[in-house]
Amino acid sequence: MLIISPYIFYNFPEILCRFSTKFGLDRKAPYYLNMSYNVSDNHDTVEKNREAFFNRIGLGINSIGYQKQVHGDTINIISNSGNCGESDALITDQVNLGLVISTADCPAIFIYDKENKIIAAVHSGWRSTARKILEKTLFNLKNNFGTKAQNLICYIGPSISKLNYEVKKDVAENFDGEDVNLKNGKYFLDLKNANFKMLLNAGVIKSNIQVSKLCTFEYSNLLHSYRREGEKSGRAVGVIAMKGKT
Q1: CA–CA distance, 108 with 90 (Å, rounded to integer)
Q2: Do strands 64-68 and 82-86 pair parallel, antiparallel, or not at all (unpaired)?
Q3: C-alpha distances in angstroms, 4 versus 17, 215, 238?
Q4: Residue 183 and residue 245 in contact, taking contact as beta carbons nearer than 8 Å
């Protein structure tokens, strides 16, 4: 099983952050190593995929909190595992509780407040990015936990690049010109940069941010992409957790 481990958390052994890929368990096309029940993959297969992934990273299937992602700006603070309802961002101060994001092109952003020991996980597709869900998550951390931006360590995971993310004009108009390229009458959107700027504008130190260079659309041999595969696309999961004694 091939698993991505972001380097930005290497100096924080208490943090577990991993991102799944297409490959493992000898799963075949079209869904490969799919982690989502919301595609037409076999339910039992997905269950085994998820259990194998979470066991492999040392977390366990019963130690994760997940959400029904709805491309909005709702943020949930959670203290228990399982289905946490409809939202696109999760926050916790609990150890041994993984926060899960499902994705197949949208940026997944993972945040650690190294001072107050808080973690957050954000799903930020174009609608949620336009609604500034990441900015709102940072405000939530500040308001509810006293988080200071300079104490945050952040990872923006693999997602579709501006080169490959063509959008319609009405979508492009929600974003700064810096995040949109107009080429031959077509609009191309840079969601990674839009979210990266939100972190910087909030006061997060640039060297404390890792932005994955992997494009989900481009790396067809490694990553799921809905834009590339359509309804036959599987989904990856990313997770962040604080390890602690039980």
Answers
A1: 11
A2: parallel
A3: 9, 13, 9
A4: no
Beta pairing, strands 64-68 & 98-103: parallel
Q: Please state the rounded mean pLDDT for residues 16-21.
A: 98
Helix spans in 96-173 (H)? 126-130, 133-145, 169-172
β-sheet with 152-156: strand ranges across: 75-77, 89-92, 118-123, 108-113, 152-156, 209-211
* Three-class DSSP category at 103: strand
User: Which pLDDT value is given to residue 245?
Assistant: 67
Q: Which amino acid is at 39?
A: V
Domain that holds residue 8: 3-242
Beta carbons of 9 and 17 less than 8 angstroms apart: yes
Q: What tens digit of pLDDT does each residue of 197-227 get? A: 999 999 999 999 999 999 999 999 899 999 9
Both tokens of residue 125? 């597709």
Q: How many domains does the chain have?
A: 1
Q: Are 84 and 90 in contact (CB under 8 A)?
A: yes
Encoded amino acid at 1, one letter: M
Mean pLDDT, rounded, of the chain: 96
CATH number reported for the structural domain that contains residue 187 in this entry: 3.60.140.10
